[in-house]
Amino acid sequence: MTESRLTGPVRVVGVGLLGASIGLGLRAKGVDVILADASPTHLAIAVDYGAGRVAAVGDRPQLVVVCVPPDVTADVVAAELDAYPEAIVTDVASVKLAVYENLKARGADLSRYIGTHPMAGRERGGPMSGRADLFVGRPWVVAAHGGISYQDGSAIDDLILDLGATLVELTPEQHDAAVALVSHVPQVVSSLMARRLIDAPHASVNLAGQGVRDVTRVAASDPELWVQILGQNAAPVAEILRGYRDDLDRFIDALDNMDAPGARRRIAEELFGGNTGVERLPGKHGVDRRYSSLIVMIDDRPGQLARLFNDVGEAGANIEDLRLEHSPGAQIGLAEISVLPEVQQHLTDELAARGWRIAG
């Protein structure tokens, strides 16, 4: 166990997924973690799982991390600043500017506050979903402002590094604009697309493949939480959605007039623009590069995926990415393996020679 960079106790307020994961990660470093939650049951579960201890009279935390819903984050941060006048306070809410402006308007001590946002999560919440390694390798934004010194805010940097995350410094405005584009608008688009499936014929839904599953995956998120998030970041999200609406209008107009001069070119250019945008997304190790893929059919029984991984390794190839899809009505799965283009043909031949069925 490597030693923590933090020198004093850390108080975590709110022991859902993020709070419990922060507690577990810090406890693994030997940090004294003090837990608090509005739900006694959640608090007891988090303590039982080893995420920290209950508060005691005389606790003097070095750092307070607020992990509560966005609509009460500013209230809790303000209360923690008042309750622990020697502590640095941060929060992990997914919107930063609204919290900062709320605290500034009420005259809170901003010399001891910086908002942060770890870009990490899981499909399920609650303290039982907490993981000590949840933040490893993930970006963690520090929404810096001029009211706190670098030296005073260093405890927050220590927290992020202790948990294995990658520190990214942005202003609150920059953060909210960024997450509107890469997180909040995708949530809206995904949810609206999934909503189209409600009244779809069963025959159509049964044809669903990996494409629609990819587009709608985040539509299963908690609506109540997202109403809070979107309410606090409404302007940047609305601005991007208006541009998206304009894109859709152009696309629809071209589809409605396919025989008009330039219609097919317009559609092709919009689709090619999507190719170009995808290429900007950082891939493995943050490197922008395209991979080749092959689809392998796997019998739906224990041990088959492990055997495939072993055969890929023995063929001298490295799996850069992997997606799994189950075939409706059949006891097989489809594994789409992404590899370097220069090894695709060799790997295809090797796997076929080992008895694997290559579907594409």
TrEMBL record:
Q: Which residues form the Prephenate/arogenate dehydrogenase domain?
A: 8-285
Assigned keywords, A-Z: Amino-acid biosynthesis, Aromatic amino acid biosynthesis, NAD, Oxidoreductase, Tyrosine biosynthesis
What is the enzyme's class at the highest EC level?
oxidoreductase
Pfam families in the cross-refs: PDH_C (PF20463), PDH_N (PF02153)
Keyword Repressor in the entry? The reply is: no
Cite the annotated pathway. Answer: Amino-acid biosynthesis; L-tyrosine biosynthesis; (4-hydroxyphenyl)pyruvate from prephenate (NAD(+) route): step 1/1
Query: Would you say which domain of life the source belongs to?
Result: Bacteria
An MF annotation (GO) of this entry: prephenate dehydrogenase (NAD+) activity
Enzyme Commission number: 1.3.1.12
Q: Which residues form the ACT domain?
A: 293-360
Catalyzed reactions per annotation: prephenate + NAD(+) = 3-(4-hydroxyphenyl)pyruvate + CO2 + NADH
Task: Return the Gene3D superfamilies for the record.
Answer: 6-phosphogluconate dehydrogenase C-terminal like domain, NAD(P)-binding Rossmann-like Domain
Name one process (GO BP) from the record: tyrosine biosynthetic process
NCBIfam families listed in its UniProt record: PRK06545.2-3, PRK06545.2-4
Name the family. Answer: Belongs to the prephenate/arogenate dehydrogenase family.
Q: Could you tell me what this protein is called?
A: Prephenate dehydrogenase
